[in-house]
Amino acid sequence: MNAAPLICLENVGVAFNARVAVGAPRFWALEDVSLTLDRGDRLGVVGRNGAGKSTLLRTLAGIITPDRGRIARAPVTCQLLSLAVGFMPHLSGRDNAILSGLLLGLRRRDIEGRLPAILEFSELGDFFEQPISTYSTGMMARLAFSVALQVEPEVLLIDEILSVGDADFAQKSGAALRARIHGGTTVVFVSHSDRQIREVCDRAVWIEHGRSVMQGGVDEVLKAYHAASRAAAA
Q1: Within a 10 A sphere around the Cβ of 76, how many other Cβ atoms?
Q2: How do residues 179-188 score in pLDDT, each as one tens digit?
Q3: Which three-class secondary structure state does DSSP give residue 17?
Q4: pTM for the complete prediction?
Q5: How is residue 127 annotated by DSSP?
């Protein structure tokens, strides 16, 4: 018998108020999404900007509660890969690494034990002890990714992040993340890159106007998605 899905969404909808006021209209970021995520799946999510892909990830992570429909999840750890979570400009790279690690769900002793690995991977050197207000954007990305890489959830949710920072570090961080993805972690990956979807995923779901239009093999879904996009542009 097949194991039960890790996460199952049935006709899920998520709405936001267009403005903060009594009686303000609601905008449905997701209208009707159904999908199942099994252990070991590498699910790609494709769709145009504003289709609801990022809202879907936040719903899968448990950050957002659906306004309608049903979501069932097994007791597994689920992490949305976020960069620079909780960073404070006046604190050092070391202190921000600890704070961010705590916010990402690590215990203090665990994140403190991983500081040497964070320092080594980030390649920040002496800047690790300096306030991050002195960092360049690339240095911030190095620190943030190096901390996020320490989290090892059973389900990893990735929103358009396969590489960060300058070219050399982008190659390094992308390789590290792909190794994690292909190491057995269950993954949901949002990307506009067909190449990355094909490289990372074994299934795909197409989201359009907050609805799950199609699920299936990566090539099958990408072909249908691009055919529809061409027809709409004609």
Answers
A1: 13
A2: 888 888 899 9
A3: strand
A4: 0.79
A5: G
